[in-house]
Design a protein that fits this description.
This protein has helices at residues 5-12, 16-24, 31-44, 50-57, 74-88, 102-112, 130-137, 162-175, 190-201, 219-229, 244-256, 289-304; strands at residues 62-67, 92-97, 118-123, 143-148, 156-160, 181-184, 238-241, 266-268, 284-286, 314-317, 320-322. By secondary structure, the chain is α/β, with parallel strands linked by helices.
């Protein structure tokens, strides 16, 4: 016979209300009383009625995380960090992959409007639209932005200081004697702006070369863009890639076309997702995904549970430059 909450209360020698408080963590219960309730739950193999709990608390203990992709290994790594933090607090995580398509994000929004207690959202152009995140805010469901280049004023945003990371990376390459740079990745980003600022601050009267565009998400895109970067008279000595995925494509193009890395050309990435698998090992920028995932999850759950009331703000984390074997001094001449 299935145990009930009354059975747990009887065995623990306490009230149903106290058992409910322990299960829902809704109010203070003394350590000794909590221990007795948890022991009774274990002995009786009691499983709370989640539907009833949701009706009583007006919470489902489900959080949605809107991401633009799951193919880039950066996203699974931060999803893992978020899931661990959610699990520790008794929440489940639903990952909503928009694949960069507006209609997919809108479908997930409509499906989860009444079911998710709160939302994490990747701060990409496809997802930072008011009609996506604002629909949850309008229902008093907290939203927290996690990673990406956009910032939304009316929600907490947990981001990496990408500009600072790419500025530091570019100055490192300049110190190695490089003067001709190509950027492999999207054109209109903080990362490109940071590279150009580093060049200007170093007195280099040139902007980073941007190959003709098209998609810039896969290693095949990195391969294609690298070929375009070397098309014509311009010969970069350093390729600054938007992420490790594109850097892997750049590395493959250079290898197949007889360019030695780093003797002929240096290559850098970002995210530290593929760097240790590359030959030579990539110089990259390490994003503190574990700290960022934990922080974003904590902020969101605290807002769901009414434990955080301050004005939303940007929480910026500093990345770290990781030197590998894919960068060296600029070739002579």
């Amino acid at each position: 016979m299935t145990a009930t909450i009354r059975d747990v209360a009887r065995l623990a020698g306490t009230s149903v209300a106290t058992v409910s408080a322990v299960i829902n963590d809704s109010k203070y219960v003394s350590p000794e009383l909590r221990r007795r309730v948890e022991e009774a739950i274990r002995v009786l193999n009691y499983r709370p009625n989640r539907v009833g709990r949701a009706l009583a608390t007006q919470r489902t203990h489900i959080v949605a995380y809107f991401v633009r992709s799951t193919t880039n290994p950066f996203f699974p790594s931060i999803i893992e960090a978020v899931e661990k933090a959610m699990f520790q607090r008794g929440y489940g995580l639903l990952v909503c992959n928009s694949e960069g398509q507006h209609h997919r994000a809108e479908r997930y929004r409509d499906l989860l409007m009444s079911h998710a207690d709160g939302v994490l959202i990747n701060l990409s152009d496809q997802l930072v639209r008011r009609e996506i995140y604002g629909a949850f805010l309008d229902r008093d469901k907290p939203v927290v932005g996690l990673t990406g280049e956009s910032v939304i004023d009316d929600i907490d945003c947990v981001v990496s200081d990408d500009a600072g990371g790419f500025y530091q990376l570019t100055r490192y390459l300049i110190d190695l004697g490089h003067r001709e740079f190509a950027f492999i990745g999207p054109r209109h980003t903080q990362r490109v702006e940071a590279v150009n600022k580093a060049l200007a601050d170093a007195g280099i009267n040139a902007l980073v070369h941007l190959p003709p565009q098209g998609p810039a998400t896969t290693d095949e895109d990195g391969y294609r863009l690298t070929g375009e970067a070397f098309h014509g008279a311009f010969r970069p000595t350093a390729l600054i890639c938007f992420n490790d995925v594109l850097a892997m494509g750049a590395l493959r193009w250079c290898t197949e076309h007889g360019l030695s890395v780093p003797h002929d050309v240096s290559i850098t990435g970002c995210d530290e997702t593929y760097s240790r698998f590359a030959i030579p090992r990539l110089t990259t920028i390490r994003i503190p995904v574990n700290d960022m995932g934990y922080t974003a999850s904590t902020i969101l759950l605290d807002r769901i549970e009414g434990k955080r009331h301050e004005t939303p703000r940007v929480h910026a984390f500093s990345p770290e430059l990781v030197i590998g074997e894919s960068t060296g001094r600029a070739p002579a001449g």
